[in-house]
Amino acid sequence: METGEGADGPGGPGEPGAGPGTELTGLGCASFNQDSTSLSVGTKTGYKLFSVTSVDKLDCIYESETPDVYIVERLFSSSLVVVVSLSIPRRMNVYHFKKGTEICNYSYSNNILSVRLNRQRLVVCLEESVYIHNIKDMKLLKTLLNTPSNPSGLCALSINHSNSYLAYPGSSTIGEIIVYDANNLSTVTMIPAHDSPLAALTFNSSGTKLASASERGTVIRVFSIPEGQRLFEFRRGMKRSEFTQYNINCINTLYYTT
Fold first, then answer.
1. Which of 15, 34, 108, 154 is deepest in the core (most CB within 10 A)?
2. What pLDDT digit, counting tens, does each position of 94-146 carry?
3. How many C-beta atoms lie closer than 10 Å to residue 242's C-beta?
4. Would you tell me which CATH number, out of the four given (3.40.309.10, 2.60.40.1500, 2.130.10.10, 2.40.50.320), belongs to the domain 113-258?
């Protein structure tokens, strides 16, 4: 087991933020892995990993009693799983769940709001900073400090590890998107996507398109990556709507849920 600290210094339990919340009641989080073959569910009493063999059946393949889990992310169908608990919201634990062992843990200067994975990179998002780790040895490669306030931990990482594009808000007041190359550790472009702050970001499976929505929830825009050129715009009316999840599927058609 290895233990590390984020570049901002040692971390410890802190005041729960927008990501962790104040208390878990029942379901704390739920997320699919990168190719939607597995579902991870965190609750007040632990977390479970399910194999998604069909829409009619979920097979539980692992269960842990780690309490108050609000982030649990599995790397594709591997044994690597990342867990963050409300009991220590500044610490990320990486486990080999089949062996039942901890690979490493890292502590950060503030609460962890989101974690994204592909086969090359592990990205940890805090409210005003982003940490990029090498997935193979968990070494911290880059720290993006003083990023615009991002209390929801909004970010997206391409699952195509050959490019590993990372997208995150470039402003807290308007819908600017920063596209960052997490492989080469350099900024690619800034996209002026919306007039109001961002609410959702997602890449397609190849990392060649990025879709975004703002807090108004009336327009979804799709951009080419890495160029940042607007390709499509989908309008759902004038009434405000909150986006909870949306995605670009493997044939590059857009769908969303509200």
1. 108
2. 999 999 999 999 999 999 999 999 999 999 999 999 999 999 999 999 999 99
3. 11
4. 2.130.10.10
**Longest CA span, the chain:** 52
State pLDDT tens for residues 206-224.
999 999 999 988 899 999 9
Helix, strand, coil fractions of the chain, as percent rounded to 5: 0, 50, 50
Torsion sign over Cα 101, 104, 107, 113: negative
Nearest to 94 by CA among 150, 236, 112: 112
Nearest to 124 by CA among 147, 151, 153, 150: 153
Virtual torsion, Cα 165, 136, 133, 155, nearest 10 deg:
40
Given the structure tokens 């050129």, which residue do they identify? 229
Q: What is the 3-state secondary structure (H, E, C) of 23-74?
A: CCCCEEEEEECCCCCEEEEEECCEEEEEEEEECCEEEEEEEECCCCEEEEEE
Token digits of residue 64: 């842990």
